[in-house]
Each structure stands twice: as C-alpha cells, then as structure tokens.
Amino acid sequence: MNTEKMSLSDKIQNTVGPFATKVNNNIYLTSVRDAMLAYMPFTFIASIFLIIAFFPITQVTDFITMILGTENAFVWQSKLLYVNSATLAVGGLIVVISMAKSLADKLETNVLQCIITAVVSFLLLTPLDNIEGVDFLNITKISAQSMFLSILVGMFSTIIYKKIEERGIKIKLPESVPPAVAGPFESVIPSFIVVTTFFIIRLIIELLLKSDALTLINGTLGKPLTYLGGSIGGLVVVKIFEQFLWFFGLHGGSIIQAVMDPIHQVLEDQNKVASLAGAIPPNIISMSFRNHFASIGVVGAVIAILIVAKSRQYKEVGKISSVPYMFNIGEPALFGIPLMLNFLYFIPFIFSNAISTIVAYFVFAMGLVPLPTGLAQIPWTTPPIISGYFVTGSIRGSLLQIALIAITTVVWIPFVRMADKELYKDEKEIDSTGSDATVQEAEGIR
C-alpha cells in the first residue's frame, strides 16, 4: 500500500514539481514577489500610526485628545496621517522602485539608472489633474490603485533598458574616463529610449483610445484580476492549490504571493480609503482577510495534537510547534508531524484553510463581524485573536478567529487521533521489547 502511495506521490511530484520550479525560478514573477515584500514594511509602519489615530476603543481616542489638550481628535489625527501620505498613499511609487530594483539585480544591469528610468516612465504614464488651467499630480493616482501599472512599468522599463544595453547602444567614452563619470553618460541612450517608448505609449492611449494608462490598465487587467482574487471561489481555489503545493514539498506561499499579493493589496487599500472617509469597507476579501482569517486551518493540527496526543512523539511535536504557531509559523509542525507527503493528513491539510476561508467569508457577508478596515495592515505573523481585533476594530474579529480555530481543530482531531494511535502502539511495542531485553540481560548476568 505504501509503495502505491509513494508511486502516486512520485507521479504528482513529477507533474507539479517542474511547473512549480519554473514559477519559483521565473525572474519576473520572483521580482514581483520581492517588490511586494519590499513594500510590506511600509504598510506596517503606516498601520501603527493609523491604529493610534483611529483606535477601535473610543475612550482611548478621547483620552489622547484630553492629554494633548486639542480642540478635538481630528487635530492630532490629521498629523498622524502624514505618515500614511508618505507610505500607503504612494504605494504605486514605492512598488515601481522596488520592482525595477529587484529585476535589475536579477538581470545584472545598472540598478540605479533602471530605478530612476522606471520612476520617470511611471510618472510619465500617470495622468495629471487640472484645476483652473493648472496641472498637478493627484497623490491618489500613485497610491495602491496604480499597483498594476507600477509593476508593469517597473518590469518593462528595466527589460527594455537591459536589451538596449546588451546591444551596446550607448555613448562610448575613452577608457581613461573614470567609471563614476562614464556610467551616467553610458546610460543616457538606454534611458532616453525607454522614456521615449513610454512617451509614445502615452500619446497612443490619449489620442487613439481617449483614455490614460492608469484607467486602461485597471480596466483591462486590474478589474478581471481583482474580481478573480476578490471572489470567494477564486480564493478557495488559491488556498487549496497553495496547500497542495506545500503537501508535495513545494513552497506554496512564495508561488502564490507573486500573483495574489498585488491583487489583495489593492483591495486592502480600497478598504482603507473607505474607512478613512467614514464609509463601510467595500471588500470582504483583502490582504488582511487572506492573512488573518483564510490561513488559520493548519493551526487546528497543533491544537488537535495538544488535545488528543498520547504518543511521546506527538506530545513533543505539540510542545515545539505551539509557540511558533502562535505567530503563524508552521514549519515545526510541517516537518515534525510530518504533514508533507503524509497521505493520512491529505484531506485536512489540503482543505482546512479552504474551510476557514468559506466560514469567515459568510460570517463577514452576513454582517456578524465588521469587515477588515484596511487601517491595521499588520504582519501575517501577528498572533490570532490579537490580529482579529486590530484588523476589524472589533472584539468580534477575535471571536471569529477563535471559532475558526475550533472548527478546524474538530476537522483535524479524527486524523490526528488515528496517527497518534499508531505511534502510541509502536512506542508501547518498542518499550515492551526494550523491557524484555533488559530482563533477559539481567537473568544472563545472574
């Protein structure tokens, strides 16, 4: 039976493995992933100030207002929003920089010039607003709503720059000229061609399509992707596929992040904008939903072990895994139980996150728990219960997480009990064999 299982495992690994390896080694997808990871710290920084400014408990806000002696809360809240304006509000600009940097590193080209060229190209495609004949850049046009545009510009501007550089199309100076002086001159032609290319693209979009790049990209690419990533069906498929990859030893998280992070960050930002305006967040599914409600399933495995384990092995695994899992770090359980390639756990491992996703979605849809506000964009390592409170601004968010942990624990318990029973039986046999050997040895000595 084990041979059949392993042969099935080998077949799946041979089928899925090469695809996953290609995705993991694709420099463009990994650059998107790295760009989003570089952006994440700034979402957390902004969230700290936003949490203070709009703390879920009104009494805390009133207390701060009293201590500061301001006329009302808005006076000091508006000051804290400065940080938001310099981080989340310019998310697209940050991502185009990190995207160009990440890809330029992988293509081994001039990183600084690629970054500057990408920023210029991005701003060139960003539409300006006009009031009474005066053009100005509306900061909302370079926020997270421009995420798809910034990724594309950062990617293609760097690719074009590298292609021009490879063809040796540059101003050539004598070898006696120091590199620090020659470098900027050599970058003139590649940067000029890149900027001119995006200038022509802007003219084509304006004159022929009567639109702008931001509207065009968000309409043709952003909306379909956002609809897919923001739908319950789409996210359930994503979570199942992610766990499927993990089961066969492939890093599901890194593969999924490259595609889904930009989509869910846009949805998160839409919630934040609505919350700051005093409106109800429009999206159930967002980065906060995915990180803090849709990924709780495997926590149930550790809780189940702590509840039912009798074997020494599982008791130790439970002790070792429980603390890391408080911070959503699952590797100790993944390798300690183990969960990978353990077909006894195939069903709960693959589907427990999908179950937590579906339950959480409908709880939010029924209005039983306030939607994630987008104000507290805290890391995925924030412990459950704490994270639920902050991302929703309500104790009901914490209660939902407790319910999800309970539900997924119930799903895991029968499977853990079966595995633990076998381990416990094996340990008893080993102990019995060892005891018999000791008795025989003692009798021999006598």
TrEMBL record:
The keyword Metal-binding does not apply. The chain crosses the membrane at residues 37-60, 80-99, 111-130, 142-161, 181-205, 225-248, 293-312, 332-351, 358-378, 398-416. GO terms for biological process: carbohydrate derivative transport; phosphoenolpyruvate-dependent sugar phosphotransferase system. The keyword S-adenosyl-L-methionine does not apply. Its main location: membrane. It is a multi-pass membrane protein. Residues 12-415 form the PTS EIIC type-3 domain. It comes from the Bacteria. InterPro entries: PTS_EIIC (IPR003352), PTS_EIIC_3 (IPR004501), PTS_IIC_cello (IPR004796), PTS_Sugar-EIIC/EIIB (IPR051088). Keywords: Cell membrane, Membrane, Sugar transport, Transmembrane, Transmembrane helix, Transport. GO terms for molecular function: protein-N(PI)-phosphohistidine-sugar phosphotransferase activity. It is found in: Cell membrane. One of its GO terms (cellular component) is plasma membrane. The phosphoenolpyruvate-dependent sugar phosphotransferase system (PTS), a major carbohydrate active -transport system, catalyzes the phosphorylation of incoming sugar substrates concomitant with their translocation across the cell membrane. PANTHER family: PTHR33989, PTS SYSTEM N,N'-DIACETYLCHITOBIOSE-SPECIFIC EIIC COMPONENT. This is Permease IIC component. It comes from Trichococcus patagoniensis. The lineage of its organism: Bacteria, Bacillati, Bacillota, Bacilli, Lactobacillales.
